[in-house]
């Protein structure tokens, strides 16, 4: 007896639903010319100019703010003209000091701090001559090297002034002045002054205009202390507080 069997394959319902869901999924394309890739590049291109514009606006705002803040100061500097440098004497000492009725031997070590207070002016010190004085009489005269000082900067100047056995290029002193200095030395203190004659040039502005001036730097009434009675010790130091503010009268040429 021949018999036939009808075989049916039952497909689960959840498999059908998964298949229908999978039918709606699109394959991921790695083709650079696909629509998804083009959409991504379009978004990046749109974002980059926005960031650049925002950065430029911030920069422009900062520049505008700086101009508003500093313009009154620049205008004030240009209106009142160049200002004299600010000078402080930070140290003064004497070495090998020996004075008699007929002779004087000494070495003075001077340290100055010089600041340019100008906001728009560069100072060039063309010529400098340092003086060491006693009783308003110069004991030593020495030229110094020229140098420049940019706006709102400072520097230190070290002077070494030396006198030994009436050198030919140094001024002569009268005997009565030496006797007074010797007496002051024995009492423990001698007062000196440090001065400088300066020929300088101020340069300022976008056009770099020049103005020539003459300065007379003055650090006055500087008492050097010695050990009283110990004339064999020729070392003395500045008495009192430091730094000392020096005066700088200035005259335009």
Could you characterize the architecture of this molecule?
This protein is α+β, with helices and mostly antiparallel strands and 253 residues long. The chain folds into two domains: 30-80; 86-252. It has three helices and eleven strands; from the N terminus they run H-H-E-E-E-E-E-E-H-E-E-E-E-E. It has helices at residues 13-23, 35-80, 175-187; strands at 86-99, 104-115, 121-134, 137-144, 147-149, 154-164, 189-204, 209-225, 236-238, 244-246, 250-252. Strands 1, 2, 3, 4, 5, 6, 7, 8, 9, 10 and 11 form an eleven-stranded antiparallel sheet that branches. A hairpin with a 4-residue loop joins strand 1 (86-99) and strand 2. The termini are far apart. 19% of the residues are buried. Residues 1-7 and 14-25 have low confidence and may be disordered.
Q: What's the SSE blueprint?
A:
Elements lengths: L12 H11 L11 H46 L5 E14 L4 E12 L5 E14 L2 E8 L2 E3 L4 E11 L10 H13 L1 E16 L4 E17 L10 E3 L5 E3 L3 E3 L1
Antiparallel strand pairs: 1-2, 1-9, 1-10, 2-6, 3-4, 3-5, 3-7, 7-8, 8-9, 8-11
Fraction of helical residues = 25-40%
First-last Cα distance: 141 Å
| Rg of Cα set | 42 Å
- Counted beta strands: 11
By oligomeric state, this entry counts as single chain
| Mean pLDDT over the residues | 80
Keywords: Membrane, Transmembrane, Transmembrane helix
Organism: Malus baccata
Protein name: Late embryogenesis abundant protein LEA-2 subgroup domain-containing protein
Main location: membrane
Observed structural traits:
253 residues, alpha+beta, 2 domains, 11-stranded antiparallel beta sheet, 3 helices, 28% helix, 41% strand, elongated, disordered N terminus
